[in-house]
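Technical note accompanying the year-one report. For the benefit of new consortium partners, we illustrate the data format agreed upon in the data management plan: each record pairs a sequence with a structure-token string. No post-processing was applied to the example shown here.
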Amino acid sequence: MGKAIYSLGINPGSTSTKIAVYKDDQEVFKKSIAHKTEELKSFATIWDQYDFRKDAILETLKEQNFSLEDLDVIVCRGGNIKPVPGGTFRVSTQMLEDAESGLYGVHAATLGMRIGFDLGEKLDIPVLTIDVPATDEMCAYAKYSGLPQIERKSRFHALNQKAVARKLAGQLDREYEELNLIVIHLGGGISVGAHQKGRVIDVNNALDGDGPFAPERAGDLPSEGLVKLCFSGVYTEADVFRLLSGKGGLVAHLGTSSGLEVTEMINAGDKKAEEVFMAMGYQVAKEIGAAAAVLDGDVEGIIFTGSLAYSKMLMEFITKKVKFISKIYMLPGENEMETLALGALRYVRGEEELKIY
């Protein structure tokens, strides 16, 4: 047995910072540090939260009696950077410059990369990011829209999608790079990826709200209606972006993004809630059918993951429509911290080479 590898995972979200320490592939501790809305409102930008979030991480490590000096590697959920293939990257100054420019969007995860990078420099240990949301392995056909001014983008739940694809491959005693799979992440956003031999050759831009409508995303919209809405004079550009991603989908129709709350509404006899919830499932099923066509019908498994995959009602509705395509596999939930730790372990053990940013 070689020396145990200790990794620190950092995964900031809009209102929380998740961290986890792993010893090899075993969790030492994990915590989601909640941040009060009132506290966050005092910061003008994400970048102004740097000291606040970093101090919260260090304080939590202190509470857990864990010393930074025991770490071998830090791994961060990827921020908004230029499109890259899937895999493991070392966080670099160029990556941070691109992320902090805002050119590719702004997300709290980018701040986690900066905190991890600074801690790693101080400790002289590697800092990694794995399967970032900007993972782009789309085939040339998938990038075309009907207007040359607008290219389709690959922005999706790459970390969780690729993690469950690898997990299923292991269960089947196969390699991820050998399989054709359709992976559906059902969370606040919904992404449906066509995985061909280890590459996601087509996927909807879930981060910006394309594809099926979702708990917090508007999904694909009728063009005429969207244009009229944009020029109605009622909404600013920022307002429209918030409608597409954040205030669309279940939130817009039902006032909540919680699948549990919607289920309670349905169980209480709310027919509108049932129709909206099943319409979301209907659109997911259509997207799965499209992904099957992209893969020429050669699909060795359909994987459902994310928090909404726990919904028996929704899963029964969708799987009834797509089970003819391939065998269904349920891997619900989001195991981002474990995925980050396992990726860092593969790198430290020399089982995976770093990609160059």
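Partners are asked to follow this layout when depositing records. The mean pLDDT is 95.
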